[in-house]
Design brief:
Number of helices: 3
Oligomer: single chain
Low-confidence stretches: 1-5
Strand order of the largest sheet: 1-2-3-5-4
Mean pLDDT: 86
Helix content: 10-25%
Strand content: 25-35%
Function: Seems to be required for maximal rate of protein biosynthesis. Enhances ribosome dissociation into subunits and stabilizes the binding of the initiator Met-tRNA(I) to 40 S ribosomal subunits.
Family: Belongs to the eIF-1A family.
Keywords: Initiation factor, Protein biosynthesis
Shape: globular
Structural class: alpha+beta
Radius of gyration: 14 Å
Organism: Halobium salinum
Order of helices and strands: HEEEHEEH
Domain S1-like: 7-81
Length: 95
């Protein structure tokens, strides 16, 4: 079955230490401010492997992994396309 007929893609879902988040502002360099699904605002760090390949904009839905030693910071692990974010909303994973 192709993606066009089903309309549903198997998206990457968060593992036990990851959360859905929405980018609220770009702070320059490899830092963004994100609002996580647990209600906290965190400073997100875009890792080098994503920095130049994946463009991250305000309003994007991302997966973050909060730091163990500093809960107010997190690493950006994945960015969802607009279409994928819509599917997550439809399926009730994010609001």
């Amino acid at each position: 079955m192709s993606e066009d007929t089903g309309g549903r893609k198997n998206l990457r879902m968060p593992n036990s230490d990851e959360l859905f988040a929405v980018v609220t502002e770009h702070n320059g360099g490899n830092h963004v401010r994100v609002r996580c699904e647990d209600g906290k605002n965190r400073m997100g760090r875009i890792p080098g492997r994503m920095k130049y390949r994946t463009w991250i904009n305000e309003g994007d839905v991302v997966l973050v992994e909060p730091w163990d030693w500093q809960d107010e910071k997190a690493n950006i692990e994945w960015r969802y396309s607009g279409q994928d974010a819509e599917q997550l909303r439809r399926e009730g994973h994010i609001d």
